Please model this.
Amino acid sequence: MALFAALLPFLSMSQDNNASAESEAYHETRQKTSVPPYGLDKVKKLLGKTTSDESDNTILAAKDYLSLTLREKFTYHMIHAETYLQNCDIILTEKDEEKKIFGHLPEPFNESVWSARQTDFLEANRDSVMALIKESVNRSGRMGVNYKHALVEIRALEMIPFLVEFYKRDRKDHDVLTVLMLLMKGAKYEPFTSSASYGKLYGKESSYHAAFLVLNTANEDLIMKRAMDLFNAMS
Model:
């Protein structure tokens, strides 16, 4: 089952409508996806041929899907989710959103999620997926929310050093820290899962959408240190 399918029911509307212009801008940035260039025109043309089934899933025909190269399939998966999953909640901007490190990522595809065929592709080609994401991020200087979800989906612990290095470039995309925490959570890394931070973000009393840590240097550095400790323990 796709990662997103398990997450969407817990989304809720923000209760704070007094967000600043800075928070609104950061909120918008958090929602943005990355668009890979690999065979993009071909993929977009084929997307015009997708059909909807009785569940409103929009699926590319097997013949057309199999005509795509690995890189083109990566583009297809990063810009299109095949499974429809209705979500009526609107996620509003949080007050001081730019000053928070959230426990979860925004959703990249509105009312759609990756299908089993799509998550199977990501998992089966995880080395290539990580390499393409790294290549794209280094070229564009940004990491879209779809890339972040892909890394969590495939449990990309190998990407921890790159994620840490990328975050340190300007320390502006705090959802990169969220990815690090979700990777530690998925790995059941005890120094993290036994911490107060974990309880605040993922404990029974936490709010799925709104749970956050205050953005400060101490929290940033602790998340990166714990993630690097996990990576080094794997070596």
